[in-house]
Amino acid sequence: MLEKSGFNRLDMEAVVARSDAELMLRVKGGDERSFADLLSKHRNPVINYLYRMVQNAAIAEELAQDVFLRVYRARHSYEPTAKFTTWLYRIATHVALNFLRDGRHARNTAPLDGPDGEPIRELRVTDPNVEDRLVARTRTVEIRRAILTLPEKQRAAVILHKYHDLDYREIAATLQCSESAVKSLLFRAYETLRGRLAHLAGG
Amino acid sequence: MMMKCNDLETNAIAYMDGKLPPAQRNAMELHLAVCPACRERIEGFTQVLGLLDEWEGVQPSSFFQTRLTARLEEEAVTQGWWKNAWRAWIPRPVTGSLFAIVFAVVVTVGVVLLRYSPTPSPVEMSQPAAPAVAVVASAGDETALYQDLPLLEDWEVLRNFEVLQELSNTTPVMQ
What we know:
The complex is a heterodimer. Helices cover 73% and strands 0% of the residues of chain A. Chain A has eleven helices and no strands. The longest helix of chain A has 23 residues, at 32-54. Among the domains of chain B are: 5-51, no CATH class; 122-174, no CATH class. In chain B, helix 7 (130-136) packs across helix 9 (149-159). Chain B is elongated and about 95 Å long. The A-B interface holds A 35, 39, 43-44, 47-48, 51-52, 57, 60-61, 64-65, 68-69, 72-73, 119-124, 136, 139-140, 143-144, 147, 158, 161-163, 167-168, 180, 183-184, 186-187, 190-191, 193-194, 197-198, 200-201 and B 8-14, 19, 41, 44-45, 47-49, 51-52, 54-61, 63-65, 67-68, 71-72, 75.
């Protein structure tokens, strides 16, 4: 019994420690369960990345489905030459930019302060009363609008940097540019946001 | 090492993230101590990073997983169909080299058959039109026919065709 539980514990640790690349290589070898593991680990971050890029929760989910289908289809040709998350975010960025550029964005996205633009199913709801909630909502709308007006690449860089903790090398690999270009993108983006959100900074 | 205002673009974000090497970090702090404009920028960036925290993320809907699972299964079925179709076409495993040899033989035979099969020449195919051309051709046009030897040959045959010559002067242009 002890031996059995010891094996299970070690097995569990091995599963936890297994890198994304290892999981993806197992998927390549036909292990569907490893794909489910990758999916459960990266589903929320990918949806949220896409949500912040296109600013619509339903569309973000649709695009995320596309991203994971692409990952699944590409399993046979997968080679762990880059970090898995970098590869994943590169696919997600490609899908998001395609969506933003092909005109569907303008047709499908409701205004930010409209009912569809409301960030539904938020992770934390801590606002104590309606007035505070209204103020918070107005501030969020302004923040979202400021991010939405950034050029696509700057927007992607800011989202990956701020909300996904990717370092400059990873952002550079995702956006397929140099690290110095990423630093420059981020500097210009934060400089723009500083100007647009200055009135919110005081309180 | 001295830092200048121009160096802020490549160092500001790394400085705020705490990712600058110690020497560059010290240089940055020395510069910020004497440059109110750069200090103001860095403070502004820090405030922006704080503001962005207010935009919370979303959780996937309950349909996401169901729908994705269905699409993945559909994908697997489609791929399975292709595999089955391929296996049905080639009943037992065929090695790549054998397949290549068979393919090369089929292509070679096809090329040989096409190359050496008795196909009518373009002139022969247009033969019905040739008499009209030959009959109306004047002596002056004959030189033009030298440019096209097969056509000239056809014209010669027609000119010496006995049946035509026996027709009582019905072909004045040929005399």
